[in-house]
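histidine kinase
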Amino acid sequence: MPNSALAVRGPQGHRILRLYHLYRLVIGVVLVLLVSANLDSELLELAHASLFRGASWVYLILNILIALIIHTPNRLVPVFTVALGDVMLLSALFYAGGGTPSGIGNLLIVSVAIANILLRGRFGVLIAAAAAIGMIYLTFYLSLNHPQASSQYVQVGALGALCFAAALFVQGLTRRLQVSESLAEQRAADVADLETLNNLILQRMRTGILVVDEQRRVLLANQSALGLLGQRNLAGKILDPHCTELVKRLQQWQENSSLRPASLQTLSDGPTLQPSFIPLQRGGQRHILILLDDISQIAQQAQQLKLVALGRLTAGIAHEIRNPLGAISHAAQLLQESEDLQGPDLRLAQIIQDHSRRMNLIIENVLQLSRRRQAEPQLLDLKYWLHRFAAEFRSTAPASKVLHLTIEGSSIQTRMDPNQLNQVITNLVQNGLRHSAKLHPQGQVWLKLFRDPRNDLPVLEVLDDGAGVPADQLHHIFEPFYTTENKGTGLGLYISRELCESNQAHLHYQSREGGGACFRITFAHPRKMS
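Tokens:
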């Protein structure tokens, strides 16, 4: 027999089977109590008292054994056998109890109904037919010995019809419940899939998303929000001690929602964030959706567009500028070589030379932005590379400029274009020596290479003992054309950061304890391809 004839399976089938076992056990216990107390003969018109008493004990003992042996409705044969045996035993009790006046026929209807919950189709109808035929046949057999039983045929026929009606009604109801359950499971699966998809989209979004309640307890935070705020986990935590600046913006918005919240920076070396707040109403509770946008990337893209346009403009007019600039520089050089010039005139010629070189340097830097070649990362041993860089630098540097090198650990590798790395380190070292020499007779710069213990990434720090960067200039030092030097172009640090980013490295500034500046380069993992 195929198992497809089973109507219900799984947890729901287990519950119905346990209910069926309990129902039969309760009937068995009640019958045994009646027999043990000799109440059966007083309450019922027994046709066969000994048969009734024996069948009652057999019914109870057999159902106890069945309840202990059969625990799952996953197989058709055991379930069908239990239902058929239950109908046969109740039919025997129906005959011994005197037919329809005993009321056992009603118990048969309930048993047929419960059996049809577990069985479907013709197997359930077969149980109903067995109950109906058993009652009719036993009533006929009973009427042979007890003529008064002949008046029970109408009632027995009604009970048989009720067995079929109960079977068909329960099967129809079960089918509808199964369809509803299947539809509910399908809808639940669709909702679960949509929820999983929504969570995946939220986690992959670059916009930081936070949902907080009225007490500013974080209910939801995606990975972008955690990264922008510099946190590992905010779920279930109060936002106030972790992001005080963001809480201030939220309070200002709650006081006046028409004002645009001011931007903020939660980390000293982190991006500039633009928060926005949206009220949510969920189940009678008021929540707030917080969106965090990294406007530093937008500003950087705008700067890049401007620099590309400037580079194209400069490339177009470079020839026109360089020709007269070269003529001016050459004329100033010839004037300096003239014997007729006096001291003041020589000074003026030198000024012309200096400004000509400065103008040419500006043109070269801007052209480099527009013509910068694609990075070609290579696997570099930073320890070996820095030793060679320091040796070459010391061989050409004057005695007033000292470069120190400290390396922690053995081989430290990364992937980076060696030419672009040389340009970045040279620019940072020259800047550090220049600022160090302003405060000390001897300019000094320290290169410190190590692995970050938090993520095991290679880190190079370029430190000096100069004045450092004032707090009001920290947000501008990497902007193009921003400089505090009279002869600077303001492109050195910008180009250095761009070269690092093109090699999947990150350059940022951090204050140094005891004074001075620290420019820190966090390199990419050596197995990370560009």
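The chain is about 55% helix and 15% strand.
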